């Protein structure tokens, strides 16, 4: 039989909400606010992060690399402050030897060892006139022929930190820890390429590249870095330009028709 509440007895009071449920509600609200704050900060930050580039190729001959001929990538070492990094030289070499229109690349270290001491910093030729004089030395031209190298690519430049700013503050307390702020920095990858044609003892041309990257690290509770890598972009883009340079007469097409205009 159903048990009924007597008419003169007040109904039982509802149990009060626990402190745990209230705290959970505040926690969810705080997380939601944090997500919106992160989104508001992050979108403009992502727009500011990236790499800008400028490449200036100049080819002064119609020489192209042929089957059985190699190219070697060498770093200019006469100026220590501008010496191209060894890993960047290796990156260019690897990129030329891979992918579409790949080119036969002679290993840098092996070439320097076989041509020792003629391509050491103190004796390496600084111009095509110096190269001509070097190849007139007894045995030097024959040693170059053994390597199969047709083009010597001189690489000069570096990647440097050029600017930075902002700041991040972190604190810890009884309720937890977190960081707030924004830091940024800019790196500049500037490289100059000179291509020498050993077969004709002349300069084939140059490729100059400048790649600027801005990285940012916003902090809303935790720092989140957005890293721009201008050196990686420089390796990829300069390698593609160098492939075109070595395989296309006049570098990038036949040019304007001299019979027009």
Short description:
With 261 residues, the chain is an alpha/beta fold. The chain contains six helices and six strands.
Please specify the SSE layout and strand pairing:
Blueprint: H1 19-48, E1 50-59, E2 70-75, H2 86-96, E3 105-106, H3 108-114, H4 128-135, H5 140-147, E4 149-173, E5 176-197, E6 202-223, H6 230-247
Parallel strand pairs: 2-3, 2-4
Antiparallel strand pairs: 1-6, 4-5, 5-6
Helix pairs in contact: 2-6
Description:
- The protein has 261 residues and is α/β, with parallel strands linked by helices.
- It has one domain (45-247): Double Stranded RNA Binding Domain (2-Layer Sandwich).
- Helices cover 31% and strands 33% of the residues.
- Strands 1-6-5-4-2-3 form a six-stranded mixed beta sheet.
- The N and C termini lie far apart (111 Å).
- Mean pLDDT is 80; it is low at 14-31, 33-39 and 253-261.
Name the descriptors.
single chain, 261 residues, alpha/beta, Double Stranded RNA Binding Domain, 6-stranded mixed sheet, 6 strands, 31% helix, disordered C terminus
Helix content: 25-40%
Question: Which H/E pattern describes the elements?
Answer: HEEHEHHHEEEH
Q: Mean pLDDT across all residues, rounded?
A: 80
Give a count of the beta strands, DSSP E runs of length 2 or more: 6
Number of helices: 6
User: Which topology does CATH recognise?
Assistant: Double Stranded RNA Binding Domain
Distance between the termini: 111 Å
What global shape is seen? elongated
Strand composition percent: 25-35%
Largest sheet: 6 strands, mixed
CATH architecture type: 2-Layer Sandwich
Poorly predicted runs are 14-31, 33-39, 253-261
Describe the strand arrangement of the main beta sheet, using strand numbers: 1-6-5-4-2-3
How many separate structural domains? 1
Please write the CATH class name. Alpha Beta
**How does the helix and strand content classify structurally?**
alpha/beta
What Rg, in angstroms, do the CA atoms define?
A: 32 Å
